[in-house]
Amino acid sequence: MNKVFLIGNLTRDPETNTVSTGVSVCRFAIAVTRRYAGADGNRETDFINIVAWRGLADNCAKYLKKGNKVAVCGTLQTRSYENKEGVKVNVFEIVADEVEFLTTKAQSGVEAGTKDDQVAELQPIQDDDLPF
After folding, report:
1. Nearest to 8 by CA among 76, 55, 73, 79
2. Which pTM does this prediction carry?
3. Which among 14, 54, 91, 127 could disulfide-bond with 28, CB atoms 3.0 to 4.6 Å apart, if both were Cys?
């Protein structure tokens, strides 16, 4: 089984591209603090690369920015390539299946008051109006 769950903060703004087939891809990294402190009392932080595809990529590119807190559910993927010096480089990244935006619009500095933010006032229903 290959399943990863992470919660962390974006270390940079997401980068979006479209591959030759027209599919959207969004790449970003999150900082995840380890649960336990080391001998010196400090908790280490890992920086994890995330890749999202298609509609999820579009949403991540549109709504995420550096510093936002996210929960990511996905799979671990490895790949390797040779760099310019001919050295083999191994890359580990998470391919996101789900990304939950944990930072609210107000916390991330997105301007409130847009049509999407407005909620219609609920009106009471009379028992006579119910169809059953």
Report:
1. 73
2. 0.76
3. 14
